[in-house]
Each structure stands twice: as structure tokens, then as C-alpha cells.
Amino acid sequence: MAKKQKKSNPNTIAQNKRARFDYHISDTIEAGLELMGWEVKSLREGKGQLTDSYVFFKNGEAFLLNAQIQPLISASTHFVTEPTRSRRLLLHRKEITRLRQAAEQQGYTVIALSLYWKNHLVKCQIGLGKGKQQHDKRETEKQRDWNRQKQRLMQSQ
Q: What keywords are annotated for this sequence in UniProt (predicted)?
């Protein structure tokens, strides 16, 4: 029997599934991204990846680091493309200040959770996360396994 896959949102470009496993996410914020033309074309083709990406602050601005957008061969022949360049996040000043203070004073990490389309714009969902200990990760795995078993039992009845 074929394994059924969950339908994800059709507007989703990329998700950082590892972030929810490694961190307790306490707050999420939607941010815009400052992109070049070839990056938007590549994202339309689904060539984005958020693994190990995070947000850092410099000169009162927020930047997304380590997000990979692979260039299309046909669209980026006359540009010097850098797939992992830092991209500026478009946030309000109050949001930047609140995130930076949480990251510096309270020990949180600001992580990119997903990239998605909102109308014709690319948005990035970022979250404040505290790192999980090894025993927390094991507890998450146990809870996930138990939920799967409950679903199987409910379907068999």
C-alpha cells in the first residue's frame, strides 16, 4: 500500500523542518525578503532551501544567512550568482529591536522556519527559538510515535 503524504500548503516554497525538532519555538513573525530577479525565478521553480539558516543583526537591520537559492541555468547566465548570500529581511524597526533584544539578552536564537508566497511576494516566517536538550528531543520523538500509533488505532476501528 502506498504511503499517504500530507498535503502541504501550495504557497509554501521551502520549510525548515529541522528547526522545530532542534528548538522550542515561542514566537513567529512574518518578514519580507529583499531578493534579486533571478532569485525570484528560482524560487518559482522551487529551488530554495532553508536548512541551517538563521537571522543575524547588523547596523539595525536583520539579515537571513545560509538560505540557499540555487540559480537557474537559463535565467542567470549574465549575473554572478551567489546561492548563499545574506539577504535583508524587511521588518519594522520595533520588530527588529524586539528580536535583537531577545537574541542578545534572553538567549534566544532567531531561525527561518519557512518561505512562502503571499500574493506575488515572497515572505519568510521567522521564529524565536530556545535550543532543546537531548532529552527534550527524545521526548518529542516519543510523543510523535505515540500520535502515529493513536492514528493507526483509530483508522483500524
A: Cytoplasm, RNA-binding
Mapped onto helix, strand or coil, the DSSP state of residue 145 is helix
Q: Where are the domains of the chain?
A: 12-132
- The span from the CA of 12 to the CA of 26, in Å, is 21
What cell does 147 get? 500520535
Cα separation, 157 vs 119, whole angstroms: 42
CATH number for region 12-132: 2.40.280.10
DSSP, collapsed to helix, strand or coil, labels residue 120 as coil
74: three-class secondary structure by DSSP: coil
- Prediction pTM value: 0.76
Tally of CB atoms within 10 A around 81: 16
Give me the amino acid identity at 34: E
Q: Which of 102, 70, 104, 101 is nearest to 84 (CA)?
A: 70
**Distance between CA atoms of 109 and 92, rounded to whole angstroms?**
19
How far is 100 from 103, CA to CA, in rounded Å? Answer: 5
Average pLDDT of the chain is 86
